[in-house]
Design a protein that fits this description.
Layout (H helix, E strand, L loop, with lengths): L2 H15 L6 H12 L8 H7 L1 H11 L1 H7 L16 H25 L3 H23 L13 H11 L9 H11 L4 H27 L7 H27 L5 H20 L1
Length: 272
């Protein structure tokens, strides 16, 4: 299959799933396996990380006022707000995954970028979501404002983001589950997940590209760009849809979806 077609398909998969708690990386690995490029294209792991930058740029566009406010440039509705989300929340939320990512990036690349490990992560992540929903059901005081997020809650959510280093767990799924467990509402946890994803994914992309420089060729660059552009366009639509959806539904449906996808690929492993 042409790499251009692969780039477009994976860009669509990435854009649709980056902000849903179903694991975009996991879905890309499974899709790449079905298309026969997971083991034949040497840059596939790098591609699967780099095109996520397209989705993250969609976050920058949608949340640009909030992101400016985080770094201290307050405009519009955030101009006179006090006690709002600030840069320290983002730093505290990112530190756990940054440290773990730098320490274990090579190990993750070597052992966790396969459809078999993704299947395990899909199931485990679904179980975590069901546990989080059970915990949240007992809490009548979930925080529904991003501006009321404490540093402690930001750190705990960041610790849950560690799990998302395992492809298939899902960054948004892990952080939203962690948010529910520590008393943060679904929409608030989702928004914080999107915001801390910006520095995390920019850093992860930079690290991945730096490590792959020796093996990359100029012919890879246009394919990467096409995938990122497609992911950006699709993610712009997906973000708006998901933020409206998550305030009306629980994580249970996403957990059951993860179980279903895992079963489909278990059957694929058996019968292929």
């Amino acid at each position: 299959m042409s790499l251009w077609i692969v780039a477009v398909i994976l860009g669509i998969v990435e854009g649709l799933t980056e902000f849903l708690p179903v694991s975009s990386t996991g879905h890309m690995i499974l899709a790449a396996e079905l298309m026969g490029v997971q083991d034949t294209w040497k840059q596939i792991n790098t591609f699967e990380v780099v095109i996520q930058l397209g989705s993250i740029m969609a976050v920058v566009v949608v949340f640009w006022r909030r992101l400016w406010a985080v770094v201290g440039v307050r405009t519009g509705e955030y101009k006179n707000k006090q006690g709002q989300l600030n840069l320290m929340h983002v730093i505290v939320g990112c530190i756990p995954a940054i440290i773990a990512g730098l320490l274990f990036d090579d190990l993750i690349d070597e052992h966790l970028f396969s459809y078999q490990t993704v299947i395990v992560a899909l199931i485990a992540g679904g179980i975590l979501m069901l546990i989080a929903e059970k915990v949240a059901a007992k809490n009548n005081h979930l925080s529904e404002s991003l501006d009321k997020l404490s540093y402690r809650q930001a750190f705990y959510i960041g610790c849950f983001q560690l799990i998302a280093l395992w492809p298939g767990f899902s960054r948004s799924g892990s952080t939203m589950s962690g948010g529910l467990i520590v008393g943060v509402g679904r929409k608030t946890a989702a928004e914080f997940s999107f915001i801390i994803a910006v520095p995390m994914m920019i850093g992860a992309t930079g690290l991945k590209v730096f490590k792959a420089l020796d093996t990359m060729s100029m012919s890879d660059v246009p394919v990467f760009i096409v995938g990122a552009i497609v992911a950006f366009i699709v993610a712009m639509i997906a973000i708006v849809f998901f933020l409206k959806l998550i305030s009306k539904v629980t994580l249970k449906g996403f957990a059951y979806y993860r179980f279903a996808i895992a079963l489909v690929f278990i059957a694929y492993m058996i019968w292929r």
